[in-house]
Amino acid sequence: MAPELPRILLLPTHLQADELRELEARIPTLTHNAHEAKVILGKISRPERALFELRRLKLATEPVALEGAEGDEAIGDKRGRSDAAEVPSKRPRLSGSEALRSRADEGHVATLDLLGGSGDVVLVLKLAWLLDSLEQNVVLPADDYLLYQGRKISSHSAQASNPGTPQPRKEDETTRSASAVNDSPYSKRTTRPGTSSSTASDGRLHSEPPTLHRETTSEHEVPLPPIPDFLHTTYSCQRPSLVSPPNATFIAELKAIRTLRLLRGDQVGVRAYSTSIASLAAYPHLLQRPQEIERLPGCGPKIAQLYQQWTEDGCTDETRKAKTDTELVVLKTFYDIWGVGDTTARQFFKKGWRDLDDIVEYGWDSLSRVQQIGVKYYDEFQLKIPRDETETIASVILAHARRVDPGFQMVIVGSYRRGKPSSGDVDVVLSHPDEAQTLDIIERLVSSLEKSNFITHTLSVWTKNSERGQAPLAWKGEGRRAGSGFDTLDKAMVVWQNPQDKGPHRRVDIIISPWKTAGCAILGWSGETTFQRDLRRYCKVKMGFKFDSSGVRSRADGSWVDLESSERGPAPDMETAERRVFEGLDLEWRPPAERCTG
DNA sequence: CAGTAG
DNA sequence: TGGCCTTACTG
DNA sequence: GCCA
Known about the structure:
This protein is α/β, with parallel strands linked by helices.
């Protein structure tokens, strides 16, 4: 009794001719017409490949709500390092238990209805679905095999895809950013330009009608999805960029290339790839073809070409070759040591060192103090820090600050504030409405946390530039008064371990800001690198300002520009201050979760 | 001074 | 074709 | 590598 199968089209991709024939023989409901197939099967494993196949079949679809399967690959976790010969400088080995979390059981709720359901929905599944179903003699749920789910559209209905996400509420002054994580900020902006155009007071507001370039290339009438108006800017601080964009897997490939460029010393390449990554991270549609890419800012023919190669081959030449290039693999290992950058990584390699044991054995004494710490805790620093632990660490820091004065306030910044489920390190910004309280607190705080054995090592302390380092600010101008304290912020970069449970050592940054620039401080510490870079560039080019986390200045005369106080006085809290900075910079408010530029 | 950090 | 974010700290 |  064969299971009752839906109409199936079998893709020939990656199948030998005889394999193909044999499989086809086992499918009673086989069709060769893509339009009547309910299920498309193939020996493929990525949603992008699925789209590529649909294109080849000339089957136009729009995506149906489906949180894309993320290609969240851990970096290199195969470190076959010998435990033999632990050098005097012992590098503690982690006790067993490595992968505590199994991926892939994120609770698949909805079982897809294969037989019933609206007739115009087509599923692209992995071939394994068929094999498993036949083996077990039942039609298995498609969930675990699903690569793509789309609704067939006739070539003339170019409906903008809105994959059924709930309409999010408007952000207003009082909304807290944390809740934004669950939203789908795309949906409110993917509506056609014109209907919901942003209120960006950017001057060069792009409220043009949906004039899509006439990209009616030789190709068929399937129109490219509209470019959201916010993607006409080259500044990533002017648009939402979410944590898990639809094209995350392709972005991951570009990030891999970026890392390779870094290791090779190609800094310009790093810049360029960062720009394209940030642009793609803001693109709310799953890519369908290379032409879409070239329309995006920071993306040109090269990136489009890489995309094509990647959809067809599953990876690019550059990453494929790198995988077997020992030099690059070793460089990456070295680069991951805290305190070792790409230049030093190459130097280590040139000395003939090939793994961490070589460094310990042959070069220990040549390492800087922080590099020694980086090597010693190499494994532990690679571990991600879950959100609840970040909160625990932060609350200890705040408690110690409040022991000095109860008026201290704190915002956890960094990737935590962006809503990531785990972080590489912990960043917190502390401030106090009374400026006298933030003056020399950093050293007292650090020593207090050292005495309580939370801080095991202090990597560096940026101490009191405010007082001593006023000279370096060539941004002279008489506007700056002595002791006003808005030079580069005081901060401490430390190694942390809970003295009670003795968990892994963690990297923690504690930043102190005077109240009047606390908005800039949390803004400067919450976005990803490209967001920051573009924010500074935007301030320079568009505003004639010089932004940094310790304040905004006029480039004309170097005078401090206060964007954080209103007529009603200083901001009541740091988040409000941050909103005022956005306003003062003529930027639309961007919740931290939308600052994920990759 | 070069190198590194966020 | 030049420019691409910023700057103090460390050794 | 892309943009002004």
